[in-house]
Known about the structure:
Blueprint: H1 19-25, E1 29-32, H2 34-37, E2 52-55, H3 63-75, E3 79-85, H4 92-106, E4 110-114, H5 128-133, H6 136-139, E5 144-149, H7 163-178, E6 182-189, H8 193-205, E7 212-217, H9 222-231, H10 238-245, H11 248-251, H12 258-270, E8 276-282, H13 287-296
Parallel strand pairs: 1-2, 1-8, 2-3, 3-4, 4-5, 5-6, 6-7, 7-8
Helix pairs in contact: 1-12, 3-4, 9-10
Amino acid sequence: MSLLNFRRKDAPAAPANSPQVEAFLKDYSIEVMPRTAEKVENFRDLLPEATRVYIAHIEGTPIEDMVATAKRLNTDGYKVMPHFPARIIKDRATLANWIAMYQGEADVNQALLLAGGVAEPHGEFSDSMQLMETGLFDDAGFKRLHVAGHPEGNRDIDATGTANVDAALKWKNDFQTRTDAEMAIATQFAFEAKPIIAWADGLRDAGITLPVHIGIAGPAKLQTLIKFAIACGVGPSLKVLQKRAMDVTKLLLPYEPTEVVAELAAHKAANPDFNISHVHFFPLGGIKTNANWAIENGGASTVPANASL
């Protein structure tokens, strides 16, 4: 019998700030945008040195602002991972220029490659696989490439089901095996542990061995989370927020990811080979609020200089 067919151990949720949660939050990452980063006077007051910080590239953001944010974060001692959204990159020359700017001005050597949130490509690229196939990241000596994952599917790619998303992840997994790229899957956020666990186990059963950095929405007002969840296509676990919104006693209280993190932490502790290796925060209620929640729950993000994550 294949090990992949063994039944996973179920585990009760770990209490907040427990050793299990602390271990699960170790080396977490967080996402910022140039405009949100500008509001943070000093990142060192919030994030431990060597935290991996993704910089989201929203359509219309000048590349100069992206690079300036990357330079600031790198100078402050963080591992900077800018987004490269395929559909807003006009052509190969533009991609090469972005890579050169990040390297030359901000000493960046890792990237998150994704299709991007626009419906129609602005140029010759429509998905992250095309970016990878250019060879430009390898030529530039990028050490790490992350790709997007969708625990609840992606309606922009699959109107129904997950066939195209699954095929894309299989291609990316194969890309890692035939190259020397260090890769991981960074996912969209979700609010319920069981669908996340089922999705991650499904990847493993399909032979996809890329480690998963699970997207978690940080503390925020309930209305804010519902708005972002609908805009980002979050599916089944949206009902967790909708159920909370129906409870008058909870409606005005900010959402915190304590429950989903505790359940995933307990599952990881009971199943050490579980392929979710890190937590990636979306600070929808603010970077400071998210960072403080992580600190209060035992989160540490110091990465040893020789670590490969």
